[in-house]
């Protein structure tokens, strides 16, 4: 009998249904010579420093660096029950082999192996490696199970990632927290360089000096030609005035046929970027929606960094494209002859191929899919059509005109084959996207121009413009920057570039917001004051995107068996040791950088909306960022400082004396998300933001 262990209950149920394990038991399913059970994410984690040595419980410089001689793990307290079920099943005499069916990636491997090792299991290990939850893919995967040992190097790289993050996080956080007077200054192997990129951009924006410039225009019958940038307004007005009612000579006309190639298929990062740009979804939301679609068998595995399908998937791609038209996601009257070859490249597919819909889209009722998930599914479907579509072809015209010895330029374009953009335009028209169109001013078709033509100037004008600072990062552009970090210093032969992996970048961004170092303002990601200060004091070794990108590449080489895990870890340990030796004291002036909130109030936490400090005020807790977030009350009840602190950490709180139709009652409030509220007081509409709560009721006491 084989024991199959998945990462989540929903995945286990899908696998069990295919294998015929239909009998429900406590924490697993059984049948047809299979036991199918599941983890609940990570069941086993690294122990805290004090578990190694009592002295390490105290945060002090003298105890650093903290480097365990032998790493120890423990079962997470909130998932012990499921761990015990798995341990019992692994030691069941009926079981002669264990199948690892956790997500087919680095973290999935870690989740399974830590549980397997902690349980002391020695039974034969096999690996299920699939890119889709469709029944056919699961069956295929079980017909081609691999020996677990094939993935030993992947497990080693996962352990290195976990241990490196622990060493940099524990030592960096404790070191700078102790040096700067006790306020928790969280340092992370990947999150700190990501914050550094945001702070660097913010500094450039803050130090930018806006300068005005002017352009003179000559206009005639739909033609609007402009001069070079002119710094002096009077000079621009003189040039425009001199051309008024004059003649302009066409001195140059350059016509070119240009084309835009179809986009590649989605990997997770490009999907997250488009979903943020078009729908305002955060990277974390996009990953959650795509993971849910994967578990519903509607899309392929999301945590991928490939934008191609393998060479043997030509038939699959054709069938899925036909299914997209038949599932009414798009109009069916478009004549389409897809170029499948363009999206096939086995050399560029590592663990998983690009994200595409599955054949399930014609079998399931798509009307019951939540709107947010439907947007992601439609995006993936649209991208498959775009990627296999024809080139977008247009004619570009650039012309120069001379009037009064001043050169004026004009350009225009005329599309003559929309190609893949036909699908793209249809998609954007079908959904109310939030794309910023301010940058994409469409060039118009120009009137017919020939060299030597004379044009009568009908009108002139002067327009005023200003030099523009760099733009704030959005999650779209931040994900792109994380993906490209360090790339300019790395050769093409490098295995992996950038900060983090497609699977981890969303969590890194969320952690920066939760820790109060970054705030979201609409789509913009802006470092908070504490975030700016933190990067100011940290050394390059912990905030350099290039160094972290090098580490990420080395982890990939560990997973391929090309770099020894011991070599990677000795480098991390040496870096941490040098960090502690180099930074041992700071001046009192620098210590004062991280004090209490403004005005000396006690800081209770960070605002979930804007990331500013929530402080204890004369009339209760309030957000110093004044973003409109109500943090001092819940359902009409004023909260204590302790309750506010717990709430800001995302924990549930017990609130007594809530008012209901049948009197007052007590309930646990669990913060789920933020929602808007409004009411009218003294004829004025008052608006703001508040937590949306889920309720749990304490058990009633027997009378």
UniProtKB/TrEMBL annotation:
Note whether Metal-binding occurs among the keywords. Answer: yes
| Enzymatic class | isomerase
> Per the record, GO CC terms?
cytoplasmic replication fork
Keyword hit for Manganese: no
Which segments constitute the Topo IA-type catalytic domain? 151-580
GO annotation, biological process: DNA recombination; DNA repair; DNA topological change
The record's annotation in NCBIfam families points to: PRK07726.1, topB
What protein am I looking at?
DNA topoisomerase
Native species: Roseburia intestinalis
What lineage does UniProt assign to this protein's organism?
Bacteria, Bacillati, Bacillota, Clostridia, Lachnospirales
């Amino acid at each position: 009998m084989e024991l199959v262990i998945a990462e989540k209950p929903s995945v286990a149920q899908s696998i069990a249904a295919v294998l015929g394990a239909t009998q429900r038991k406590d924490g697993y399913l059984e049948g047809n010579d299979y036991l199918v059970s599941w983890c609940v994410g990570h069941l086993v984690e690294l122990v805290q420093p004090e578990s190694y040595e009592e002295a390490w419980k105290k945060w002090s410089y003298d105890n650093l660096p903290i480097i365990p001689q032998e790493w120890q793990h423990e079962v997470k307290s909130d998932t012990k029950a499921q761990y015990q079920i798995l341990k019992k099943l692994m030691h069941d005499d009926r079981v002669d082999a264990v199948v690892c069916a956790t997500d087919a990636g680095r973290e999935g491997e870690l989740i399974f192996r830590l549980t397997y090792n902690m349980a002391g299991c020695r039974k034969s290990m096999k690996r299920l490696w699939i890119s889709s939850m469709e029944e056919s893919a699961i069956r295929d995967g079980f017909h081609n199970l691999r020996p677990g040992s094939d993935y030993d190097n992947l497990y080693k790289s996962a352990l290195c990632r976990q241990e490196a993050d622990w060493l940099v996080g524990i030592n960096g956080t404790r070191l700078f927290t102790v040096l700067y007077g006790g306020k928790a200054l969280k340092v992370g192997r990947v999150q700190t360089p990501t914050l550094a990129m945001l702070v660097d951009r913010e500094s450039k924006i803050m130090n930018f000096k806006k300068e005005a410039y002017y352009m003179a225009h000559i206009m005639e019958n739909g033609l609007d030609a402009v001069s070079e940038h002119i710094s002096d307004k009077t000079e621009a007005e003189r040039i425009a005035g001199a051309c008024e009612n004059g003649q302009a000579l066409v001195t140059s006309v350059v016509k070119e046929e240009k084309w835009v190639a179809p986009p590649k298929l989605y990997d997770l990062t490009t999907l997250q970027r488009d979903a943020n740009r078009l729908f305002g979804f955060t990277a974390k939301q996009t990953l959650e929606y795509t993971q849910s679609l994967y578990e519903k068998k509607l899309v392929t595995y999301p945590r991928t960094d490939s934008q191609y399908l393998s060479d043997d998937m030509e038939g699959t791609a054709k069938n899925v494209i036909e299914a997209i038209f038949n599932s009414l996601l798009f109009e069916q009257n478009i004549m389409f002859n897809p170029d499948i070859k363009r999206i096939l490249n086995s050399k560029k597919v590592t663990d998983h191929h690009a994200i595409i819909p599955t054949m399930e889209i014609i079998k399931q009722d798509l009307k019951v899919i939540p709107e947010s998930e439907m947007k992601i599914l439609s995006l993936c479907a649209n991208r498959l059509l775009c990627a296999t579509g024809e080139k977008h072809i247009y004619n570009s015209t650039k012309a120069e005109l001379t009037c009064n010895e001043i050169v004026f330029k004009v350009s225009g374009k005329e599309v003559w084959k929309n190609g893949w953009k036909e699908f793209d335009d249809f998609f954007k028209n079908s959904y109310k996207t939030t794309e910023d169109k301010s940058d994409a001013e469409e060039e118009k078709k120009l009137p017919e121009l020939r060299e030597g033509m004379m044009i009568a100037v009908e009108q002139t004008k002067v327009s005023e413009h200003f030099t523009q600072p760099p733009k704030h990062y959005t999650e779209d552009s931040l994900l792109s920057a994380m993906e490209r970090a360090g790339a300019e210093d790395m050769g093409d032969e490098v295995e992996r570039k950038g900060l983090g992996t497609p699977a981890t970048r969303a969590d890194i961004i969320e952690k920066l917001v939760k820790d109060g170092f970054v705030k979201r303002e609409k789509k913009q990601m802006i470092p908070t004051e504490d975030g700016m200060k933190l990067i100011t004091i940290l050394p390059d070794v912990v905030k350099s995107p290039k160094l972290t990108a090098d580490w990420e590449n080395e982890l990939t080489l560990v997973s391929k068996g090309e770099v020894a895990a011991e070599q990677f870890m000795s480098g991390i340990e040496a870096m941490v040791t040098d960090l502690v030796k180099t930074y041992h004291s700071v001046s009192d002036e620098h210590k004062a950088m991280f004090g209490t909130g403004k005005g000396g109030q006690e800081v209770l936490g960070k605002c979930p909306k804007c990331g500013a400090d929530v402080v204890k005020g004369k009339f209760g807790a309030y957000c110093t960022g004044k973003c409109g977030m109500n943090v001092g009350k819940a359902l009409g009840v004023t909260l204590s400082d302790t309750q506010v602190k717990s709430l800001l950490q995302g924990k549930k709180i017990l609130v007594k004396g809530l008012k209901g139709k049948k009197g007052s009652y007590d309930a646990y409030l669990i913060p789920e998300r933020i929602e808007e509220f409004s009411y009218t007081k003294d004829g004025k509409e008052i608006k703001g933001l508040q937590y949306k709560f889920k309720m749990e009721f304490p058990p009633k006491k027997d009378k």
